[in-house]
Write a structure and sequence with these properties.
This protein has helices at about 30-60, 65-70, 70-95, 105-120, 140-160; strands at about 5-10, 15-20, 125-130, 165-170, 175-180. With about 180 residues, it is α/β, with parallel strands linked by helices. Helix 4 runs parallel beside helix 5 (about 140-160). It is elongated and about 60 Å long.
């Protein structure tokens, strides 16, 4: 992996992100444009589940379908909480400032998961080495967005059908992002 000592640093709200010096700079708006189709696909999937349950309730004219599909509804509820946060992050990542800022300890995990799925659709692969650190929810989405932006730029720089091996580790008040094409 690229040496973190030869690096660029970015600070956001008391949390720094350190990336390899050779990292290609993210272009504003690129990450949001890349994530939007995958986010819409996920939202459509949840909407289909809810529409299906609604159809069952309307066809049977009872609420039995709600009880029978409780597991589906519970899954949809969790997915909507995550997707709602991602919609807000995407809007903020595009510079709109729309919506209230929701703090989330899973922010890095959720954004990177969406990025992995988006890149996979293009034939690119992000291979994470090691666990993701949990962020203090008060750091907001900016730190997670910054890391995902650097990863997106590096994956695009690596070319089609490339695997990008990467990791993020906490080092004091700094997150160190390391990556290399595989």
């Amino acid at each position: 992996m690229a040496d973190a000592m030869d690096s660029k640093s970015i600070s956001r709200e008391g949390v720094g992100v350190q990336v390899p010096a050779s990292a290609p700079a993210p272009r504003p708006g690129e990450l949001a444009r890349a994530l939007l189709p995958t986010l819409l696909h996920r939202l459509n999937n949840v909407t289909q589940v809810l529409s299906g349950v609604n159809s069952l309730v309307r066809l049977t004219n009872t609420s039995d379908a709600l009880l029978q599909r409780a597991g589906d509804l519970e899954h949809a509820s969790g997915a909507l909480a995550r997707l709602g946060w991602l919609v807000g992050a995407l809007a903020r990542g595009m510079g709109t400032g729309i919506g209230s800022l929701r703090h989330e300890e899973h922010a890095l995990e959720w954004i990177v998961e969406l990025l992995v799925e988006s890149l996979r659709r293009e034939g690119r692969e992000l291979v994470r080495e090691g666990p993701l650190p949990r962020l203090d929810p008060r750091t907001g989405f900016e730190t997670s967005w910054e890391i995902a932006s650097w990863l997106h730029a590096a994956a695009n720089d690596a070319g089609p059908d490339a695997q990008l091996r990467w990791s993020v580790r906490a080092q004091g008040q700094r997150l160190v992002l390391q990556f290399e094409p595989g």
